[in-house]
Amino acid sequence: MASVSKKMQSNETSCCKAGPGYASPREAMAGPREVLLYVTCVYSGTGTQKPDYLATVDVDPTSPTYSKVIHRLFVPYLGDELHATGWNSCSSCHGDPSADRCFLIVPGLFSGRIYVVNTKANPKAPSLHKVVESEEIVEKTGLAYPHTSHCLASGDVMVSCLGDKNGNAKGNGFLLLDSEFNVKGRWEKEGHSPNFGYDFWYQPQHKTMISSSWGAPTTFTKGFNLQDVSDGLYGRHLYVYSWPGGELKQTLDLGNTGMLPLAIRFLHDPSKDIGFVGAALASNMVRFFKNPDNSWSHEVAISVKALKVHNWILPEMPGMITDFLISIDDRFLYFINWFHGDVRQYNIEDPKNPKLTGQVWVGGQIQKGSSVLAEGEDGETFQFDVPKIQGHKLRGGPQMIQMSLDGKRLYVTNSLFSTWDRQFYPELMKKGSHLLQLDVDIEKGGLAINPNFFVDFGAEPYGPSLAHEMRYPGGDCTSDIWV
């Protein structure tokens, strides 16, 4: 990391003895309040012939531009589908004083390019530092469709890739970039690639990395078809690897209760051997844990009951858990139901017995005014009340979430992936996404919509865009890992 840090020294305003991030989760919770939020925004698939971009949103309530997009960094090419993001270094590098959290890693899911964005020189107006071209990645590793990135304590950056250049899942695996963002190769040992790729999280004290599984790019890029699930073209497994060795040690078959396991998180306490994964189609939160013999097991921790519905594509509608996170103090777990439209908060101080402590509806298929009706056990139909914010009707369903370090604010966007957005929430193509903020009661539990915060990506200068992943310049609870 030292060579990267030297490039940034001219922009440093102070010298510190520690590396980036925080020494512990407790210290992170006492960190400064977020004032900026970086959001990936997509024009791919919307019909607007503009490149995707990284939006900088002002989230400082004392600022005159609060709740506004104050900068847009457009990438050079069309059709990237900017999606997930991560940092070049995080709290895993806290012990390295030469390391610096100064670059945001922004993969293009469709194009296979990886953009490296300088956020340190001017945090309000990030600039493009480097483009890692897809041709180089394919030539050296065979990997394409990059998704999740995490920094490693070594200074390298690791990126999960969901397939080969032709979109076959068989070619998926984990890409390594060095501290200068040169392609090093694959992380996993030869012959140890998973069947499907998506998200991953590592827990060094337990010498383990676990990854989840979406599906083959040739399948999910065409839209969601339930027959593809029956045909085995989507994942239902977790892959347990040795860390940092890269050997596939165990495959956990989650079965029908774990179909489409997407976002995966360990507890933030690095000594803990417990984590969760959100199974989207099954609409279950699955807890995984280490056994005394060092093998891993899993069990369903939370189930969202499918609703009987009218005027929809199926007679029953799953919640569709497509994202979740855990507060930095490991007290609360939050997840969204992209179809049903609610955001939930659970107390997980006893991870075996989560307790629902907060719930709020901010969109979804069954909101009042929709043609879709849910039917209760008594045979009566109903719809959910979804309030307007600053006169705006909430579109789509909640999709990505990000939490403040202190756990008091939860940010929510509503675009999953352009192809699936078009299929399930076509109005987003014409009206765009929005960004909301929920106030969180961290004492007793509870969620409430902040009526003073609303970012309308339907009002962007070049037309409505789709907003997805969110990051703070100082790190957050879904990118920082402690070792």
TrEMBL record:
InterPro entries from the UniProt entry: Se-bd
* Keywords linked to the UniProt accession: Selenium
Which Gene Ontology molecular function entries are recorded, alphabetically?
A: selenium binding
Please give the Pfam families that the UniProt record associates with this protein: SBP56
**What SUPFAM superfamilies does the database record attribute to this sequence?**
3-carboxy-cis,cis-mucoante lactonizing enzyme (SSF75011)
Keyword rRNA-binding included in the entry's annotation = no
Superkingdom, natural source? Eukaryota
Q: Which family does it belong to?
A: Belongs to the selenium-binding protein family.
Q: What is this protein called in UniProt?
A: Selenium-binding protein
Q: Which organism is it from?
A: Cannabis sativa
